[in-house]
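Please annotate this fold before class:
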Amino acid sequence: AALFMENVRKGSIVSRANSIGSTSASSVPNTDDEDSDYHQETYKESYKDRRRRAHTQAEQKRRYAIKKGYDDLQAIVPTCEQQDFSIGSQKLSKAIVLQKTIDYIQFLHKEKKKQEEEVSTLRKDVMALKIMKVNYEQIVKAHQDNPNEGKDQVSDEMKFNVFQGIMDSLFQSFNASISVTSFQELSACIFSWIEEHCKPQTLRDIVIGVLHQLKSQLY
């Protein structure tokens, strides 16, 4: 009986020690797991911060590029530099800068087309002058080869006087018969005037009258 009581006492002591040890072990924090969670959470927050910072920087660069573009347009387009009395001295809005830029580009297109037409006209004039130059060179050369030829020919001044007399006579009838108040009236009158005053017989009479008049002036 004494041995049995001793074994029971030792068993209770061991069981209490085991319970105390398990309780103590359970109360001790698991530092390895918590360190791992802490580092993982820190890494996540750091990654979010980096993404947020990168997004902020990209947005700032985008806004700066847009602002610089509008500033460059306002500096390049002359109409943006002119004072607009409707808005006073306040800064031009982006919409106004864009509209003024569009208007200026359209103006440049019109000026370019106008200059191209002027260049085309000048090229035609140059070509005509070259042809006239060649013709006059041929006339001069022919006159130098035969200096006595053409003395009895009609002078250019006389030709011009004949042409002027014919045109003056036609203009008098044109001015008396044609109404230029509107294009419709001009279109309605012009054909009747041509049929009446530009007949071959009428033109022949005009030319003969001009020649008689010049003959009387010369002799």
User: Anything to note?
Assistant: The radius of gyration is 53 Å. The first helix runs from residue 2 to 27. The chain has seven helices and no strands.
